[in-house]
What does this fold into?
Amino acid sequence: MAKKPLRNLLFLIQNRFLQTNPIPSSSSSKTPSSKSALLPSKPLPIPGNTSPESESVISCLKSYGFESTQITKLVQKRPEVLHCRVDAKLKPKLKYLIQKGFTGKLLPQLIVSNPLILFRSLDSHIKPSFELLSPFLAGEDLLVALKRSGSWLLTFNPNSILQPNVDLLISEGVTAERISKLLVVQPRVILQSHDRMIYAVKTVKEIGLNPKEPRFIHALRVICSMSKLNWEKKVEAFMSLGWTKEEVLTTFRKDPLCLACSEIKVRHMMNFFVNTMKLDPKTIIAYPKLLLYSVERITARYKVMKVLESMNLIKEDKKIVWLMTKSEKNFLEEYVAKNTDKVPDLLDIYHGAVKPRKTTKAKIEKFDSKSLFKLRKTTKANNEKSDPRSASLIPKFSS
It folds into this structure.
């Protein structure tokens, strides 16, 4: 009786292969018989019958929490998994991964995301990879890094790629804490070829960032994300918008991720800042972080500020850069919630320009009328405090 569900699952897998590998239609036969329609033009990579070997693999996977759909997807990606030796190869790897924290649904999710893990040696590949990562990552950070890397951190050769790159960063003065952050935020940087990593480190240092600075790893991310030719094109694109080359490099040293913005976005943002908001281009050069915000965020805040200014609800000496960089919560408290009694549709104006965005935890961040009421209740008794910071290049908000 126990074999019946396994046979059904193999039948399901075979059907899925037939659906994803359709049989070429024949011009000479418009209505092929049902028998010929089931015959693939090439042999399927699934056994034609339910072999004990395949059933043993599926039974093992199911015992470790794999659902039928996950097994089907796994076999689609790597059909040879059905030929794995269960006791000698499959179980030891699954048990080891569980010991490392991949329990419950995490285990099948990891394997399905990158089935190559099952085909890497446990002793000479998987364990050394974990040993290499363990000084930098533990617990949830390790799970996040593996997920973001598509599990490639466990399938790339630790001796030819991971270890040399980590050793290089350490020798240059990058702290273990910064390497940990890089592995969590952008683990694929560590998976660059060693020659490319040497080039990236050299380039960032030549631009003027010290490996001990926190921004160094972010600069490394940017340089590793594009070829040398594309980097030169990116610098030229900024220069075409009014930056000097030195200002571009200064911008990179201040906020490296600004140079990761697409040319289309940078041009669009500069057009809005200069032609709609009437900002001096030098202001953007002085505060390049403005380029990192979404177009929706800037547009929504600008519209709110224009409405409040037109009704004399804000002082004209408000520093617009600080308004744009305030957290979402603070902006809503200080400028939207505080004025909804006088401008009932202010929240609609704001929501009409901004879209719900995903937070770092991949949840949709949305501000509805209930949350707005809470904000109003919280801030009602407090008077607005002016920002003590000032700078000569921050323009005043004007119509």
